[in-house]
Design goal:
Protein name (chain B): 4Fe-4S ferredoxin-type, iron-sulphur binding domain protein
Structural class of chain A: mainly alpha
Organism (chain B): Acididesulfobacillus acetoxydans
Number of helices of chain B: 22
Radius of gyration of chain B: 23 Å
InterPro entries (chain B): 4Fe4S_Fe-S-bd, 4Fe4S_Fe_S_CS, Cys_rich_dom, Helical_ferredxn
Keywords (chain B): 4Fe-4S, Electron transport, Iron, Iron-sulfur, Metal-binding, Transport
CATH superfamily of chain A: DsrC protein, C-terminal domain
Number of helices of chain A: 5
Mean pLDDT of chain B: 96
GO molecular function (chain B): 4 iron, 4 sulfur cluster binding; metal ion binding; oxidoreductase activity
Oligomer: heterodimer
Largest sheet of chain A: 2 strands, antiparallel
Number of domains of chain B: 3
Order of helices and strands of chain B: HHHHHHHHHHHEHHEHEHEHEHEHHEHHEH
Helix content of chain A: 40-55%
């Protein structure tokens, strides 16, 4: 299993670079994950990341993409421009959410 | 590595490296008949070779099948597999014993089934992927350990195979090179079914060795039993999704619909594959619109597993499958509905209506039906006013194996398409003779390591060829939208990945989606198209 070292913490990742344990996430980890995605986090990124964290805190699962697009008031192209790997593999990953499962 | 044409089942027990390597795969038609139109296979990483079984064909489908660290672990692995192998031929295996025994004992090795197999064809006729190849390996192992002649005479009676960790692990991987589509069984002159053998091997791995692909078991069935859905959607998230769906329907169509949830005494409990809420929310929305228009007395359930029709257990583990069937039945009994209706998900049809019949029966069983005859009935009764010109683009139909070949639901979807899609054309072959999308039996969600390469380049290859052939008249013109109607979540996932891999949407404007979405798109009174092709 891969891992990243943030400060003195060893944080395990799955093979696709998602956090194994979403509770190990904090802003420092987000910055680190953003680097692996070659994303420079701006205010606009943080707004989306915070939205995803809030949804995850409420429901323990990532929001459907269509829902996210509506809630953050941005179209899919804008989200791809901000997170080139897309809403799931990019934004959710940096926000520390688990990899999507099931027939999705 | 030997020439692929010389490969024999006993080679699975051979020491050393990879048994075979895929190089020459089946040609694709235009515009994919030129070099550089698809990515090459990626090289196997040395780190994978150390950890997993890459010695079959270089692909890793089973991420939990990892190399033993000690001789004891290896011996234990072989011992448990053999014990499981003995068990599947006992009365306790009453779900599959008879067809399994017949297939095991009576195969004449005529190989009629090989050409029926899309994986064998797509592989460029590599021996390894003949439907009977893995069955032969299993026969040799069985003979060696459980027959008198095999124990005494070994190779003279076909028990010529070395059995160790590598042999069994390769066989475990080989059980995940079959989509369980049963096209081979359909063509067998003796009516034998090699997919049963593939599935029984998977079952031994899961039930005896606790080895199953993570997306199917730990992140599939286990998550479903814990949270209510393999997507991780719990009750609160489900209810929130429904509320969002109602708002979305109103915004898209102007229709105010209250989606019934947990309505006691309804006629129909409709169960969707919960992946639809995440990836294709327009599909359950379209169902709601059509069911309301048809005046059906229906409901969704918010109970555990009552809102997720998937049952991955039918692909790898009978015990897990039964738990899911029971949970879905419980949800129906709680509401007192007359019947369960399964939405656009093929394997869920088989699991709830066919396999489930052997797991829950008698008075406790709520009957299970397909959505398709119900929709066709509503169409015939004139419940919907369609304007087919709204679907004025080429449409072809993919037949989900479980629903069509497996259950014989063939005509309703075609009858509907003939009404709503003026440019509908069939694939060749189609109906009960269809080819699998390549995502069957769990492949659509098995994305570990390099397995996606095997799916996109090999198991989905025949379906991609069929799609290109069906659109041969317009494929090269990217200004024309083309639509593959695939009424199954699992198939849609495989087709989506296929189109991304081959850049079929980006380059040639080929799209995919469900049947109900296309029906709603044709509703004459909606203010604007329901489908958008702007991805």
């Amino acid at each position: 299993m891969a891992e990243i070292v943030v400060g003195d913490r060893h944080i395990p990742l799955d093979e696709d670079g998602f956090l194994e344990d979403a509770s190990m996430w904090d802003e420092e980890v987000a910055n680190f994950l953003a680097k692996t995605e070659e994303v420079e986090l701006t205010e606009e990124h943080w707004e989306i990341i915070k939205y995803l964290r809030k949804y995850f805190d409420d429901f323990n699962v990532a929001p459907p993409v269509r829902r996210m697009v509506k809630d953050v008031h941005r179209d899919l192209q804008t989200i791809y421009a901000l997170f080139p790997s897309g809403p799931g593999k990019g934004a959710c990953k940096i926000a520390g959410l688990p990899k999507p499962t099931g027939c999705v | 590595m030997e020439n692929v044409n010389d490969l024999k089942p006993s080679d699975i027990g051979r020491a050393g490296g990879q048994v075979t390597k895929l190089d020459k795969v089946m040609d694709l038609p235009a515009p994919y008949d030129k070099p550089g139109m698809e990515p090459d296979f990626k090289e196997v990483k040395p780190a994978w070779q150390e950890k997993y079984c890459t010695t079959l064909d270089g692909f890793v489908g089973v991420d939990t099948l990892q190399r033993p660290k000690t001789k004891e672990e290896e011996d234990e692995f072989v011992r448990k597999f053999l014990s499981g192998l003995e068990k599947i031929f006992t009365d306790a295996n009453n779900g599959a014993l008879q067809p399994l025994s017949l297939t095991f004992d009576y195969c004449a090795k005529c190989n009629t089934c090989s050409e029926a197999c899309h994986i064998y064809e797509a592989s460029g006729h590599n021996e390894l992927y003949r439907p009977i190849f893995r069955s032969e390996v299993l026969r040799k192992i069985y003979k060696k350990y459980f027959t008198k002649s095999g124990k005494l005479l070994g190779g003279f009676v076909g028990a010529d195979i070395d059995v160790n960790w590598e042999t069994i692990a390769r066989l475990g991987e080989l059980a995940y090179r079959c989509n369980l589509c049963r096209r081979c069984a359909q063509t067998c002159p003796l009516g034998l079914d090699n997919s049963i053998i593939a599935k029984e091997i998977r079952k031994i791995f899961s039930q005896e060795l606790e080895i199953a692909p993570t997306p199917l078991h730990n992140k599939g069935t286990v998550l479903q039993l814990k949270t209510g859905s393999s997507t991780g959607i719990n009750k609160a998230a489900f209810l929130d999704n429904i509320e969002f769906m109602e708002e979305d329907i109103e915004e898209q169509t102007g229709l105010k619909i209250k989606v019934p949830v947990d309505k006691k005494g309804a006629d129909i409990l409709l169960i969707h594959n919960a992946g639809e809420f995440v990836s294709w929310p327009e599909n359950p929305a379209a169902f709601a619109i059509l069911f309301e228009r048809a005046g059906l007395n229906w409901t969704l359930s918010s109970s555990l597993v009552g809102y997720d029709s998937v049952n991955y257990g039918i692909w790898y583990d009978d015990t897990q499958a039964k738990k899911i069937v029971q949970a879905q039945q419980r949800a129906a009994l709680e509401l007192g509905v007359r019947r369960i209706v399964i939405g656009e998900c093929g394997h869920a049809h088989k699991a709830a209506a066919v396999v489930g019949d052997r797991m829950v029966y008698g008075e406790d069983k709520v009957p299970v039906e397909s959505f398709l005859p119900i929709l066709w009935d509503a169409v015939q009764k004139g419940a919907f006013k369609f304007d087919p010109s709204r679907n004025d683009f080429p449409v072809t139909l993919h037949d989900p194996c479980n629903l069509v070949r497996g259950m014989g639901v063939v005509e309703p979807q075609r009858n509907i398409l003939k009404i709503i899609a003026p440019k509908f054309r069939e694939m060749t072959p189609h109906g009960v003779y269809n080819y699998c999308c390549g995502g069957g039996s769990g492949f659509a969600i098995m994305n570990s390591l390099n397995f996606l390469d095997f799916r996109n380049k090999v198991s989905s290859r025949m379906k991609f060829k069929q799609i290109l052939d069906a659109f041969a008249d317009t494929v090269a013109d990217p200004s024309i939208v083309k639509y593959v109607c695939a009424p199954c979540s699992n198939c849609k996932g495989a087709i989506r990945d296929m189109f991304e891999y081959y850049e079929a949407t980006a380059k040639f404007n080929i799209h995919y989606g469900g049947l109900v979405d296309l029906m709603v798109n044709a509703l004459a009174d909606l203010p604007r198209p329901f489908l958008t092709f702007d991805e």
